[in-house]
Amino acid sequence: MVQQLARRHGCEMLRYAINGLLATAVHFAVLTVNLEVLHFPSAGLANLCAALAGITVSFLGNRYVVFGHRAEPLLGQALKFSGLYGLIALVHGGVLMVWTDWLGLDYRQGFVLATALQISLSYLGNKLLVFKK
């Protein structure tokens, strides 16, 4: 099943992975600045703010490069995408809050864990809800 999926959607999945790496790099860079330079008191809050930058990069890349589905008006897609990513950002922020703020563990490890969950949720949500053809 995985091989069949990869054959049918391989190029799309590669574009999605590259776009996701770029968005994640932006997200992590902003998170790092928030915690290390601006000294946010909460990793969860710093992460939620950083997620907005990553979400913007992700939307533009998904709309124009990954799925190439521009038939729907930009605003309609942006609203659906925002709703999906708003929920994902809350999940991501919650994971980081529990991992770092409550358990006292390193925020970088929590970020990796939360991002793995985010990748799965965002690909499925984008493919099936936001950019469906």
TrEMBL record:
Keyword Membrane applies: yes
Recorded GO CC terms: plasma membrane
Span of domain GtrA/DPMS transmembrane: 15-131
Keywords, comma-separated and alphabetical: Membrane, Transmembrane, Transmembrane helix
Membrane topology listed for this record: Multi-pass membrane protein
One annotated GO biological process: polysaccharide biosynthetic process
Subcellular compartments: Membrane
InterPro entries according to UniProt: GtrA_CellWall_Glycosyl (IPR051401), GtrA_DPMS_TM (IPR007267)
Parts of the chain that traverse the membrane: 16-33, 45-66, 78-99, 111-130
Top-level taxon of the source organism: Bacteria
Recorded family membership: Belongs to the GtrA family.
Name of the featured protein: GtrA/DPMS transmembrane domain-containing protein
Species lineage: Bacteria, Pseudomonadati, Pseudomonadota, Betaproteobacteria, Burkholderiales
